[in-house]
Design a protein that fits this description.
68 residues; mainly alpha; 78% helix
């Protein structure tokens, strides 16, 4: 089972998201990182269906972005 994301990992993701919004760039890698973080959070909460649904939607969106 994967480990819960650290505060530093989440902070780095949010910093990169801010940079993407202000200076531009490709959102594909960021979408994949977001999905990974949400999947890891969901893995630590196996009884939380909403967390699983959010992680699944994020992974689907990342996969779709990669295919474009």
């Amino acid at each position: 089972m994967s480990h819960r994301p650290t505060v530093d990992e989440i902070a780095a993701f949010l910093s990169d998201l801010k940079a993407l919004c202000t200076i531009g760039g490709s959102p594909v890698e960021l979408a994949d990182r977001k999905a990974d973080l949400l999947e890891r959070i969901s893995d630590t909460m196996p009884d939380d269906q909403e967390a699983a649904d959010v992680a699944h939607a994020a992974r689907a969106a990342a996969d779709e972005a990669r295919e474009r």
